[in-house]
Design brief:
Blueprint (H helix, E strand, L loop, with lengths): L7 H27 L3 H23 L4 H8 L4 H24 L9 H30 L5
Helix pairs in contact: 1-2, 1-5, 2-4, 3-5, 4-5
Bound molecules: fe (ii) ion.
Length: 144
């Protein structure tokens, strides 16, 4: 089936899943941006929580996106640690927001809070895409 056993094969597939996830999350963020009543917001946040738990674990896993970036571009370590730290912050905010939506009515400021979360997740995923692209650029030696 395969010509050779390349140890990078697994790494590539986990990285590919993580990068493909960055397109999937856009759909979840569109839904979150449009949710304007408490039930819809709760459903969006529950979907986002399930997605984020799985997606963040894939990125942090051995041979995942962060390891691939660190191997190709060790000088990005500080930026990798910064996005890794955001995983806990984003999940904590999703969970706290869900707790705040336990009632029947949309709490004051909930729409703004949802928009802020959309911006935070977009910025986070965008930084990861940049790190990945810049690490590949470094690895193939363009610009040396
Ligand atoms: Fe990500």
């Amino acid at each position: 089936m395969s010509e050779s056993h390349n140890p990078r094969d697994n790494s590539s597939s986990l990285v590919d899943i993580a990068i493909a996830d960055h397109r999937t999350v856009q759909k979840l963020l569109v839904d979150l941006r449009e949710a304007d009543e408490v039930g819809a917001l709760r459903r969006c946040l529950s979907d986002l929580k399930a997605f984020a738990e799985r997606h963040f674990a894939i990125e942090e896993a051995p041979e995942g996106l962060y390891e691939a970036i660190a191997l190709a571009a060790p000088h990005f370590q500080r930026r990798i640690e910064a996005v890794r730290a955001q995983h806990g912050e984003l999940l904590a905010e999703i969970e706290a927001f869900l707790d705040a939506l336990a009632g029947d009515a949309l709490p004051e400021g909930a729409r703004e809070r949802a928009d802020a979360l959309v911006r935070a997740i977009s910025a986070h995923e965008s930084e990861e895409n940049n790190l990945h692209a810049e690490a590949l650029y470094t690895e193939i030696g363009v610009g040396d």
